[in-house]
Amino acid sequence: MVCLRPERFHPSTYQKLQAKKTGPFRVLKRLGKNVYLLKLPLDLHISPIFNVEDMCIYHGHHNDVSEELDLQLPPTLSPRPKIEYVLDDQLVSTQQGGYQKFLVK
Questions:
Q1: Residue spans per domain, the chain
Q2: What are the Tf2-1-like SH3-like domain coordinates in residue numbering (predicted)?
Q3: Cα–Cα distance between 87 and 102 in angstroms, integer?
């Protein structure tokens, strides 16, 4: 199983904030020294032949249940004190619309 780097696809099909790899895909056949045939979904609409430079090995997920998990619980939140009264309030304008600030006791 291998993953593909998004640079292999047409620039309009991927963006900067997408995943660094696409896949995993099954290798069907080795066609040459550094060329492979992959089994791709039909909706990709690209050639299934890839150079090794465009691929990386898929390592899978580590699901070893014999290993103990070291889970950290989130810290408990202490209750906030009650608001006695509002001393001041302001409407702060921003380019996104704005927000309201309160000074409380």
A1: 2-57
A2: 1-56
A3: 8
Taking the model in full, what pTM does it have?
A: 0.50
- Rounded Cα distance, 45 and 29, in Å: 19
Q: Provide the 10 A C-beta neighbour count for residue 50.
A: 22
Tens digits of residue pLDDT in 42-91: 877 788 898 888 888 888 764 544 444 444 545 555 666 788 888 998 98
Q: Which SS3 state, helix, strand or coil, does residue 67 take?
A: coil
CA angle 70, 73, 78 (to 5 degrees): 160
59 sits in which H/E element: none
Q: Cα torsion for 18, 4, 39, 45, to the nearest 10°?
A: 50
Question: In whole angstroms, what is the distance from residue 27 CA to residue 85 CA?
Answer: 67
**DSSP label at 82?**
P
Task: Tell me how far apart the alpha carbons of residues 31 and 24 are, in angstroms, rounded to a whole number.
Answer: 19
How many residues appear in the chain?
105
